[in-house]
Amino acid sequence: MENRITQLFKIKHPMVQAGMVWNSGWRLASAVSNAGGLGLLGAGSMYPEVLREHIQKCNAATDRPFGVNVPLLYPDIEQHMEIIVQEKVPIVFTSAGNPKTWTAFLKKHGIITAHVVSSTKFALKAAEAGVDAVVAEGFEAGGHNGRDETTTMVLLPSVRKHLKLPLIAAGGISSGKAMLAAMILGADGVQVGSRFVASEEASSHRAFKDKVVVAKEGDTHLTLKELTPVRLLKNTFYEQVQQAYARGADREGLKALLGRGRAKKGMFLGDMEEGELEIGQVAALIDRVQAAADIVREIMTEFEAAKKSVATL
Fold first, then answer.
1. Domain-wise residue ranges, the chain
2. Which of 76, 196, 243, 300 is most buried (CB neighbours < 10 A)?
3. Which tens digits make up the pLDDT trace of 26-51?
4. Rounded CA gap, 141 and 36, in Å?
5. Residue 76: CA atoms inside 13 Å, Cβ hemisphere, count?
6. Cα dist. 262→46, 73, 206, 258, 267 in Å?
């Protein structure tokens, strides 16, 4: 399949693997790129030299394009950007911050840029900043999210109505049918996160992958909006957050409860009770851990079958 996204990123399938903290290391990114999608390294959980190591290992593992996701709210951004330039990374997705801060710098170095947004207003700001593509992420998504709780089905047509740039849909997409629905609503491609958490190559702890596989409807909740909104699997830490709200905790109280390294403790080190477990609502539809290449293949096969099915409606 060829369209604006495959042409922009020089990939076979218009599918991007989300650059998720503690999940998206070089093994996952290279596997997705080798399967014809666009793999992304999640720089948000990497110290600068760790990012350099993952870029170099990804380069050795694939001869196809891959990129780096850089959440702009994390520290070490300047060093991350310098390493990205030094290592000649061709594609960068920025998120959780103002795209104007780094887009011009990246474009000056010939890097294709995309920015993740949760509203039409921010999509237009990203376009003004000069990005090459926009990722419109609905509130179903895992990890850091928008405060307005706009769903993917509402967000996509709104952004498409106001934006001419290549548009990537994110939030609640784990199947070929969902991919087709997103493209009918105006997307040129999709970004898949949660399903790749449940992949053999994801760098997250096996206990977290297994927790995702058994998740049911209602097992996630968007919370901590006073800090940075995040969708969490319900566990002991989540209950502690809810208790803090019931006590009337302010921003500083919530920040103290969150502490440092809470996401690493859960997703990377495997503490399923005291750790922060970030995942999307679509976890309820994920029933097994698979190789990343099989995930790409299944989604694209179902996508092609769904196109034929829609024609008969």
1. 4-204+290-311, 206-282
2. 196
3. 999 999 999 999 999 999 999 999 99
4. 23
5. 14
6. 15, 16, 17, 6, 9
Q: Which amino acid would we find at residue 36?
A: G
One-letter identity of residue 95: S
Site of tokens 């350099």:
52
Question: Could you tell me the two tokens for 90?
Answer: 């061709």
In whole angstroms, what is the distance from residue 203 CA to residue 159 CA?
A: 32
Query: 76 — alpha (psi -120 to 50), left (phi > 0) or beta?
Result: left
Please measure the distance between the N-terminal and C-terminal CA atoms of the chain and give it in whole angstroms.
23
Residue linked to tokens 């061709």 = 90
Give the chain's radius of gyration (CA, Å).
18
The label of the residue with tokens 């996160």 reads 193
Name the phi and psi angles at 115, rounded to 5. -130, 140
pLDDT of amino acid 74: 80
Measured in degrees and rounded to the nearest 5, phi and psi for residue 95 equal: -155, 165
273 — phi, psi (to 5°)?
-105, -50
Strands 230-233 and 220-223: antiparallel
Burial class (CB in 10 A: 0-12, 13-18, 19+), 250: exposed
Q: What pLDDT is attached to residue 83?
A: 97
Flag residues of the chain having pLDDT under 70: none
Would you state the structure tokens that stand for residue 105, as one six-digit string? 């710098």
| Residue 67, beta-bridge partner list | 40, 91
Query: What residue type is 278 in one-letter code?
Result: E
Give bridge partners of residue 230 from the DSSP assignment: 144, 223
Residue 1: per-residue pLDDT: 84
* Spatial CA neighbour of 313 closest among 177, 175, 187, 155: 177
